[in-house]
Amino acid sequence: DGGITQSPKYLFRKEGQNVTLSCEQNLNHDAMYWYRQDPGQGLRLIYYSQIVNDFQKGDIAEGYSVSREKKESFPLTVTSAQKNPTAFYLCASSVGTGKIYEQYFGPGTRLTVT
Amino acid sequence: DAKTTQPNSMESNEEEPVHLPCNHSTISGTDYIHWYRQLPSQGPEYVIHGLTSNVNNRMASLAIAEDRKSSTLILHRATLRDAAVYYCILRHEYGNKLVFGAGTILRVKS
Question: What pLDDT is attached to residue B1?
Answer without folding.
Answer: 62
